[in-house]
Amino acid sequence: MRNEQAESSQSSAPAEADRGARRAVTLFPLLVLLAGALGLLSPGTFTGGAEAVPYLLGVVMFCMGVTMTPQDFKGVAQRPWAVALGLVAHYVIMPGLGWLIAHALDLSPQLAAGVILVGCAPSGTASNVVTYLARGDVALSVSVATVSTVLAPLVTPPLTLLLAGEYLPVDAGSMVTDILKTVLLPVIAGLLVRLLAGRYVTRALGVLPWLSALTIAVIVAIVVAGSADAIKSAALLVFLAVVLHNGLGLALGYGAGRLARLGEPAGRAMAFEVGMQNSGLAASLATAHFSPLAALPSAVFSVWHNVSGALAAAWFARRGPGATAPEKE
Predict the structure, then answer these.
(1) Closest to 118 in 3D by CA, of 257, 265, 279
(2) Which of 105, 176, 244, 267 could hold 257 in an S-S bridge, CB 3.0 to 4.6 Å?
(3) Predicted model pTM
(4) Class at the top of the CATH hierarchy for domain 11-318
């Protein structure tokens, strides 16, 4: 009887975690909007908070690491072609779009660097859940998100230097160090905790999405407060840049998956892995290396890509799962 209860408890934990993640993603845009409004209306409340942003991001990435398992990395070895395509699409399409949009809209150097930095960030932390809601290929989504995060210290700084260096000085070496400290090390620590204390961690999985959402909301409030004076004049332009960046990323990501004949579910996963960014990391790097104004696109992206992701997932889900084409080897 006790064994049956234990098995029932263990089997229900992932389901509860999944429900918690879906609720967090659904309510996350409202939470971030509220945080942004607080930062805008009462910027003094968050004065000095910029120094805490890297540590807050570390909390988010630790939560991500805790949700990971060795199976996530096994999926990379099982589908190297699809994962490699996802990585190339992510780190080519979004940085390139950021650069093109910055030029097309004639953004100021600070805003241009911020938009490009968002594009150079790894996949967003909510992309896996949104892929699930869209009836996409969750295994591929998890694999691409995992590897893009692990490779971020090697890819994000040089891409930022290449594309944003014409606008502002970029210290790529210092950026590598910051990403290692705020992204890779917390993720590894979370993964180790999951491996060493999996039984206890499983019980808390439902809380982790909410902790991540609240932490990102605080980051957004701090970023908005730091550039509150500039938002009134730049908000519409930044919003246009973010909508174009995210929307084109979703469309081109989906198109890349379909063009490669990976199948409809994989195409949906590619859409979200390309179009949704780790805007919390971009905000942290922009605040540390550029200015609070450069972090504004990241704050807006944090809100918008969850709204657009939820809408796109609902649209995909209504279309049904779709047919799966054979995967290339």
Answers:
(1) 279
(2) 267
(3) 0.82
(4) mainly alpha
